[in-house]
Design goal:
Elements (H helix, E strand, L loop, with lengths): L20 H6 L2 E7 L8 E7 L7 E9 L3 H8 L16 E9 L11 E5 L8 E5 L3 E3 L6 H4 L3 H14 L7 E4 L5 H13 L2 E6 L2 H10 L3 E4 L5 H8 L5 E6 L4 H8 L1 E9 L12 H5 L4 E4 L2 H6 L3 H13 L16 H9 L8
Parallel strand pairs: 8-9, 8-11, 9-10, 11-12, 12-13
Antiparallel strand pairs: 1-2, 3-4, 3-6, 4-5, 5-7
Length: about 350
């Protein structure tokens, strides 16, 4: 791949590579969710689009389930930190389904294989065109609804905790938004590392479910100040590692909850609030702050090996995903609203 060529999993995956416009109009059609303008859930339109066609090193997947990520909501709104997505587009970064057609040069896969797929776009559709680099064999016994929820959140938690925060056994990890997709992944990965896991959630019910996933302590942030609770739990030592995805005030308070040589990794900003750091807040406790973007790891080719390791842990029943609710494709707007209102525990 030359430097001028975009990475195959970073650009739109729903386009029919090399298909002339007139021929595309004559192609058999499928149903997909399309965004023609930025805005609220009402801009998600269920409409006919041409079927994707196999292309070199690319496969057509018959989509059985697609997962919603927070980034889907911000891309729809036109507020995604990575820049505006060109209109029109079909959202969706991860799906599960069966291989329907193989492009030239695809190896190791056959028509009918059950797979999990990552792509840059195109998941909210009946079919998707995916580069072979983003394909993984589905573990035996896993449902399509479970499989499609794994790549984004588990890879994000894996890289953030292991590569950036360098979490070690017996350290204390504070996982913000434990009921989110990244939260449920991070709780389990931190637990497997041997860390003491403290998490936050917005209700007692969600806190109880976080404890079931393996958290040692769960703090209802609506009822208690999580900084005070972390200091109580750690006997004023503070958290060694913080995985932060909310931003704004939560980010600033997370710094206060950290101990000496603490490491915070920012993996999202679901609040949409701006973040600011007073260097003195870092210097006085020798803290470090980093940010994580999964797209950079995908582009570097590092996501594949990490995903294979995660799937092995799923096969060994050491990790599990949580599917909160399943919506039909026709109700994509309702699904986005449900996630936007933070009603979910786990993935939708």
């Amino acid at each position: 791949m030359s430097a001028a060529e975009p990475h195959p999993m970073m650009g739109p995956a729903c386009r029919q590579a090399g298909l002339p416009r007139e021929e595309a109009r004559r192609s058999p059609s499928m149903k997909a969710i399309r965004v023609h303008e930025y805005g609220d859930e009402s801009v998600l339109r269920y409409e006919d689009v041409p079927d994707p066609q196999p292309a070199p090193r690319r496969l057509v997947i018959k989509v059985a389930a697609a997962s919603i990520n927070r980034g889907d909501l911000s891309r729809r709104q036109g507020t995604y930190g990575g820049g505006l997505t060109a209109l029109p587009f079909t959202p969706g970064w991860e799906v599960a389904g069966t291989v329907e057609a193989l492009g030239e040069g695809v190896e190791g896969l056959s028509v009918g294989d059950r797979v999990i797929a990552q792509m840059g776009d195109g998941g909210y559709a009946e079919k998707a065109l995916v580069h072979q680099a983003g394909l993984y064999q589905m573990p035996e016994g896993m449902s399509f609804e479970e499989g499609c929820t794994i790549p984004v959140v588990f890879l994000t938690a894996w890289f953030a905790l292991h590569r950036l925060c360098r979490l070690q056994a017996n350290e204390t990890a504070l996982i913000q938004a434990g009921g989110s997709g990244v939260g449920i992944a991070a709780i389990q990965i931190a637990r497997l590392t041997g860390a003491r896991v403290v998490t936050t959630a917005g209700s007692d019910e969600k806190c109880a479910r976080c404890l079931e996933l393996g958290a040692d302590h769960a703090i209802n942030y609506r009822a208690k100040d999580f900084v005070q609770e972390v200091n109580r739990i750690t006997e004023a030592a503070g958290a060694d590692v913080v995985l932060e995805s909310v931003g704004g005030e939560v980010f600033e308070k997370s710094l206060a909850a950290m101990g000496r040589y603490g490491r915070l990794c920012m993996v999202g900003n679901s609040s949409g609030q701006p973040n600011s750091v007073d260097p003195r807040a870092l210097m006085f406790k020798n803290l470090s702050v980093s940010g994580f973007y999964l797209g950079a790891e995908i582009a570097a080719g590092a996501a594949g090996p990490a995903m294979e390791e995660l799937l092995r842990l799923f096969q060994q029943n050491k990790l599990r995903t949580v599917v909160d609710r399943v919506f039909p494709l026709t109700e994509a707007a309702a699904a986005h609203r449900y996630v936007g209102e933070r009603r979910n525990f786990g993935k939708v």
